[in-house]
Amino acid sequence: MARSHRDIPDEAFLEQCCRIATRDGYVYQGTRRPEPNKAILPSQADSRRVKTAQDRDEDYRRRVVNYADAYTDTHGTICGQPFVYKTGPPWPQRTEPSYHIVRFSRELRPVNNHPITDSWDGILTDVEAYLKKVGQAFTAVMGVGFANQEEPPFGPGLDLEPPFCPLVMTIGVEPETVAFEDAKTIADYVKANILGKAGFPDIDVAIWEFTTSFFGTSGPRLPPLDPDIDAETMPLRVPFTSTLGIPISPFKDPYVEGTVGLFLTRGEGKDDILGLTAAHVVSPPFVDLNNIRRPEMVSPYAIPREEIAVLGIEAYERAVTCLVTEIGSLQLSIRTKNETISELKEELERGEGNADDVSSDIEFLARSVRIAQYTTAMYDTLHTRVTKSMSVLRGRSIGCVLHADPIGASDGPPGSEYTNDWAVIKIREDAFKKEGFLGNRVFIHDRLRFEDKTFAKLMFPNVAERKGSSYPAGGLLEIRGVVPADEMRVPTQLNAHGEPAMPVLKNGGSTGTTVGWLNGLKSLVRHSDYANFNVDFTSRETTIIPYSAREGPFAAPGDSGSIILERTGRVVGMLTGGGGTPERAEVAFATAYYDLEKRIAEVLPGTRIYDYDCPPLYPLG
């Protein structure tokens, strides 16, 4: 049942909202999630220097003298970082009638069901051994495809251009750390002596300036999100509810932000609610994981003192600012419509125009004003609640760290190591309103909607697969099950061309809902961050490719801990970081959940995914 609003919003507050909405001449248009956190990790910021235009010109000339296609090969990609060198013939270029070469805009594509799949882990092992032997530091070794971006008009559901390069091995290196001659030697050796001897001599190798980083920068009695009541205000309510993904921050450093991506539980009942996130999110750099949170030091229900808040300093400010800006936008709309109504009434009194048409226009505008006033009252009530009870960090505490594994590579046979970077939060009993608690449902309606068919177009690019499929009620996708290893290597889903490809999604505390493609080949990633986490290790990472260049990055700082799902709600993995540049991640990295759940059960016996009754679904057609 809808709520009544007896209190009229304060006029002074509404005026302030209008000023914020029109600041710098900008009028806020519609509801949207807070903008992604563009923060740079401290270790990266300290070593960066702002380059002048002259510096950039010199860099460009230096690179293209050695490798002419350094920038052409990667032009248009999200991070835009150049290749130092690539083996093989030049990639296709577009030539205009004037014979002037115009760069194609490129984008990455996932690799699935390729003949190299069964040999890939062994190849990565050999590449890592070779790079260690020659003393070459690397950031990530990936197997990805490259394609040209499709031409305008843009729009969801258009067939993607087929990849002109179905597979290239990229070896990532820190920018400006590898000379061209060394890059050429390494790439040529890997192509001839590793890929060639493995039976794949035609696959090329590129040395790519490509960095990697963790994505952590970037009791409130949280209510559930009720689609029946909150339908018009859901996008701006989500940060202040118990709906996944939940933006979080440690008390010890509230500017470090991440996401609770999954609810877990233990025992027979469902009263014990736990939250899964990344270890580097709940543990600021000055906290020593190895000394204070080993499994044997934590009893099953002990609550260590590392307290966690929903919404860090910046996330809370962004969420409240978006709320205030939307109120101001609604007020400006109401004023404009009321002025138009007054003009139409005067027109009616003068007997001008068709009386029935003018009266109909007045009624339509009046109805729009009433809806805007009602929505304003709902936003005002929400603003009052969150600024009164949640403005102080202590009022946003949702629990404490129950366990955080030391960050590093997992134990296991060579080639099976995954990134061990997870933590479990014991949610306070008074943190959530238990009445109507939705459990593991992820809000996707901010990006994937039923009414405009974005969910169907992006998550079911092959039209034949939409038959018998459904859209989650209220835009809340329930988590159900885990994608097995075999299906992650060779997906059963299809892209628009009928080829195996798994579209995935996530909702993170920083970027909201985003979509991408699961890459069937894992990447060999080196995590070297002594300044923040005192770690230096390599692991095999599940890799997420951007859905397309126009969709932008899959994740950003503040999204660490988000759970990556395929379209039916099965868990793919937990987001830990990404690679490209500190500002723009070309790819995202994750720990596969089929590996992670084994480790969680080993450390916290009896822990499982929190389950709940399935919601109704809307057929896609």
UniProtKB/TrEMBL annotation:
UniProt keyword list: Coiled coil
Organism the protein comes from: Trametes coccinea (strain BRFM310)
Region feature Disordered, mapped onto this chain: 29-57
Stretches with biased composition (Basic and acidic residues): 46-57
Name listed for the protein in its UniProt record: Uncharacterized protein
Residues forming coiled coils: 327-361
